[in-house]
Each structure stands twice: as C-alpha cells, then as structure tokens.
UniProtKB/TrEMBL annotation, chain B:
This is DUF1214 domain-containing protein. It comes from Chelatococcus composti. Residues 72-167 form the DUF1214 domain. It comes from the Bacteria. InterPro entries: DUF1214, DUF1214_C_sf, UCP009471. PANTHER family: BLL3101 PROTEIN (PTHR36509:SF2). Pfam families: DUF1214.
Length: 186, 189
C-alpha cells in the first residue's frame, strides 16, 4: 500500500515539474505557436515578398482594444533582400508610426513631430544595410529620412491617424491609407 | 503500479498542468510589470522592446498592436475609484484634469476589447470643459446632456484612456496621480 502511495507521489511530483517545464517552454515558444498574431492576420493578406498597404478596419474586431477615433493602416515588410522605405503622410491632428516585430511587439515608434513637410519618411534596414548605405555615402545630411536599424528581418509597419472629431474620421482613414511601403533599392 | 502506467500518468499530468497554466497566464492582461495610478493600469514595457515573455505571449495571442512608447500611453481601468468593478447597470462620472498630452481619447470597451455602436469614445478635441479646464464625462446606458458616453447593453466594461504624444510616455510612473481622472460611481439600476 505504501509502495503504491509512494509511486503515486513520485508520479505527481514528476508530473508537476514536467508541467512547469512545459509551461515555460510554451510561453517562450508562443511567438512561433500562435496562429492569430497581428502579423499572421495582416501579412496573410499581402502577397509574399511584396509590401503592399492594407487598411485596418475600425469595426473593433480586427485589432482588439483599437481606438475607434484612430485610423490605422499597416504594411508588412521583409528586409532580407533590401531595406524598406516608408513614406507616411501625417494628418492635421495627431499621427504616429510604429514598427512591430512578427510577434507584435513594438520595435520603434515616432510621432508626426518627426515629419518633414507633413510626411514621415522611415527607412527600416539591417545593421549591414545601414553600414553599406553609410559606406556608399548616401547619408545625405539634408535627407529628411529617419533610419531605423531593425533587430528583426520581418514585421509590420503601422501608421495611426487620430480623428479629433467623428466627422474627420474619413479624412484620417484616407491619410493613413496613403502610407507607402516600398523597397529602398529602387 | 507498472512502470509504463507511471510514465504515462506523469506525462498526462505534465500536459494538463502545462497547457492550463499557459492558457491562464497568457489570456487577459500581462501578469508582470503593471503600473497602477488609482484605478488606471498601464504596462509601460508593452510599448518597447524590453517586453517580458508573458507580455509578449499575450500580445501574440491576442493579435494586438500595442501603442509604442514614442507614440503615447494607454491606461485601462476595469474598476472605479472605490475598487468596485465597472458594470453597465450603474452610471459613472469620469472627471478631472488630464495628464499632459497633445491629444487624449477615452473609450468604452466590452471585456473582449470590442466597441459597441458609433459612439464608443470621446476625444480631447470634442469634449466640453469646465471653466477651470477640467472635464466631466458621464457614462450611462441612458442618453444624458453634456459629455456622455453610452455603455454596452450588458455585463462589465473596460475604460481606456490613451494619451497621445505625452511627455510622460517615457516614464509613466512620474505622472502626478492627481492629474489622472477619477472614476466615481453614481446611481445603479
């Protein structure tokens, strides 16, 4: 009887320890496991290898806890082949731009204070592409572009345009949808 | 007990414990790194790269696109100032001056993060102010004069206060608690 109880205790203890290891492994692997990430949702609608604009809907279902007063537009990037150049016109009120990794975490974010003539120009590049651009002497001092050295090769660029009044929402959506994501090599 | 049975039971317990605790820990709000100012809660690490594995897992699972630190701060409240859960059967007043920001929005969500109807939020531009610059916003299922936000038909709800282009987004802990709006419960039906 005591032997059965003893082996039961061992089974329980071993199960709990293994369960704990499973827990930690699953939490750490969640970016690979989850199929409902922002990247999957938005990049799935984009053709592979190409960055194309996708307008986020404001019906409250696409992105949970999205601000209904803010128009969002998103494009996916993959900078393995070359840097990404984003040109995002900013709205009258408040606008911002953020770079997210595949897992949705924020890598970089700026507001429209960095805009030149109402347009935020952001180049997302790898460390090597950045060094090559510097060596090629393309770092024009007067260039209004922001350079972001991304730690990830793939991700999303999100533009937000705040509509101060409900009547200005169509304009904010139009402004957000006007973001252009293109290969910087062209 | 036969050894094979022991091993199978061990793996069954491990799988059950692992999966249920992961599901519990990665649905809802990040368990670590919360900053509370009165009833308002924010997770400063969500807006940057230094995000812990649990917060990352939650972001990934929900498909959310968090607001970056460079863009602003997002506060959520699911309780009033007295610590009672926010419920649509009561009226609430959100009042006070707001922390410094170029623009702010106050939005009512159902617990899953969806909004109801055309008018789920108010922005700093459209709100009516008192002579001293402070605001009073009434939350109720019935239409009321002044700054009114309708509540969803049933259940609990969540309030979100977003401060866009706030000088304090880099260090939300430095926000003066007195500048955050108070959530006071009115009469309940």
């Amino acid at each position: 009887m005591t032997r059965v109880a003893g082996s039961l205790a061992i089974v329980l203890a071993a199960g709990l320890v293994l369960g704990g290891i499973t827990h930690l492994a699953m939490v750490l692997a969640m970016p690979m496991l989850a199929g409902n990430t922002a990247f999957h949702r938005h990049a799935a609608a984009l053709s592979p290898g190409e960055t194309r604009l996708l307008v986020a809907q404001q019906d409250g279902t696409d992105v949970p806890f999205a601000d209904p007063a803010v128009a969002m537009a998103v494009c996916a990037f993959d900078i393995t082949e070359g840097p990404l150049r984003v040109e995002a016109p900013m709205p009258e009120g408040f606008g911002s731009l953020s770079v997210h990794g595949r897992d949705g975490t924020v890598l970089y974010s700026v507001t429209d204070r960095t805009a030149v003539n109402g347009v935020v120009t952001l180049v997302v590049m790898t460390r090597q592409q950045h060094d090559e651009a510097l060596a090629a002497g393309r770092s024009d001092e007067a260039s209004p572009e922001l350079r972001f050295v991304s730690p990830r090769l793939q991700g999303l660029v999100v533009v937000r345009a705040l509509a101060p009044y409900p009547s200005s929402l169509p304009e904010a959506r139009e402004r957000a949808a006007a973001m252009e994501c293109m290969s910087a090599n062209d | 007990m036969p050894a094979i049975l022991c091993i199978l039971a061990t793996f069954a317990i491990a799988a059950l414990v692992g999966v249920t605790t992961v599901d519990w820990a990665t649905s809802g709000r990040p368990p670590l790194g919360a900053l509370s100012i009165g009833p308002w809660v924010t997770w400063p690490a969500l807006g940057g790269r230094d995000v812990d594995p649990y917060a990352r897992a939650i972001t990934v699972r929900s498909g959310a696109l968090p607001l970056g630190t460079g863009e602003g701060i997002e506060f959520l409240a699911s309780r009033d100032d007295a610590g009672q859960p926010l419920h649509v059967s009561c009226n609430y007043t959100v009042s006070g001056s707001m922390p410094a920001a170029r623009a702010w929005t106050l939005t009512v969500y159902d617990p899953s993060g969806g909004t109801q109807g055309e008018r789920a939020g108010l922005t700093s531009a459209e709100v009516l102010r008192r002579p001293d610059g402070a605001v009073d916003i009434t939350l109720s299922r019935r239409a009321l004069p002044g700054n009114w936000l309708p509540l969803p038909p049933s259940g609990r709800f969540i309030l979100a206060l977003r401060l866009y282009d706030s000088p304090q987004s880099a260090d939300p802990a430095a926000i003066e608690p007195a500048t955050m709006p108070r959530i006071v419960r009115g009469d309940c039906s």
